[in-house]
Amino acid sequence: MATKHEQILRYIEGLEVGEKISVRQVARALSVSEGTAYRAIKEAENQKLVNTIERVGTIRIEKKKKENIEKLTFAEVVNIVDGQVLGGRNGLHKTLTKFVIGAMQLPDMEKYIDAGSLLIVGNRERAHESALNAGAAILITGGFDTAESAKRIADELDMPIISTSYDTFTVATMLNRAIYDQLIEKEILLVEDIITPLEKTIYFEPSDTIEYFNQVNRKSAHSGYPVIDENKKLVGIVTSRDAVGKEEHLLIRDVMSTHPVTVNDKMTVAAAGHNMIWEGVDLTPVVDRDDYLEGIISRRDVLKAFQMAQRQPQQGETIDDIVRNQMADVPEDPTSLAFTVTPQLTNHFGALSYGALTTILTEFGSQLLKQNKRSEGVPESLTVYFVKQVPLGGRVLVKSRILHLSRRSVKFSFDFVHNQEVIASAMVMYQLFEK
Question: Which keywords does the record carry (predicted)?
Fold first, then answer.
């Protein structure tokens, strides 16, 4: 049976896009406390089912698919620019297709405006009405108001007019930053991207026998299987090792492991892979917040995802990408790399930052893994035991050495050399994914 929290989320998901909701309304409709309704609405906001706007309220918005995640709704624009809605509130749930900066004559501006776009402009009232009639929304910069006639058009067409105190350049920068951040989010692989869903998952019930397990296991390539009750709730996991040598009349509940390692579908693949290595498991059940089984992921799935991600074009640039872009190979020595301390790699004193140093260590270690082991791994421990400051513009050579290499782990040592002097030494240990 679904929890109250789940019931509220399903209720919200079933509302019409654009409909306003409130804590009191949800509490009354589903006979729950206002505290429970508030927590569920916040979760719906995290899942991008609703958007809350100051002085407007909470609005049901269309949940964007991952491939369209970089598109903003007008409600999100209001929050990004700390805006005030002057008209067209009923259209806040709509998605904008592009934004146009109105820094030109009206006839020229009209060539670039079409339905679904957002015109960023100052207090040019003729431009406001012209854009609204073309099906565009308006973002007025400088904190200006607009004519009452424009507000009436906005209400009739359900196209928002938003006012912000920021100038045009700042607003364009803020919107670009928001889209850019969502592009980065789009590239991050989640468990939901690689899950084997429940309908394709082989699972057992506690009352199944070892004999039945052996019959199924002989036909499958898996080494472990989730165990669920009659409500599809996860109660354990059973592996070939659990069943080997056991009498065939025994039940799964007698040999299964309870409290298995699990993940949820919104966890990153990197975090899920980390957990699998840490716990030494090959298969992990994917469950919802109430432990109902949604599917499984395997180490093979994680490895394939990592390999696929490396072949994809990168659209958003993270801090790690910025650091990685400064790293250069040393042609005469494949076990070394070089980098220059650019402004992006410095702390507030203008010297190489510890964060950049750590990123360089882990990224270089991953490269060396592929060269020596042709494998994927995650850093388990990192120690930097001697540091001198490297100034802005300094050229640094990083020399590596393998201290220990085994089937499950590898240890590297690194020396950072600047002006022929060792300025930092470090050791990184990686746990390896087994294919």
Answer: CBS domain
Q: Which helix (H) or strand (E) holds 101?
A: strand 99-101
372 touches 362 (CB < 8 A)? no
How many C-beta atoms lie closer than 10 Å to residue 175's C-beta? 20
- Both 59 and 74 in a single domain? no
Look up the domain containing 272 and give its range: 192-307
Q: How far apart are CA 395 and CA 138, in angstroms?
A: 49
SS3 content of the chain, % helix, strand, coil (to 5): 40, 25, 35
Number of domains in the chain: 4
Of the candidates 100, 148, 149, 146, the one whose C-alpha atom is nearest the C-alpha of residue 123 is 146
The verdict on pTM exceeding 0.85 is no
Instruction: Read off the pLDDT of residues 190-247 as tens digits, 9 standing for 90 and up.
Output: 898 889 999 889 999 999 999 999 999 888 867 789 999 988 999 999 998 888 888 9
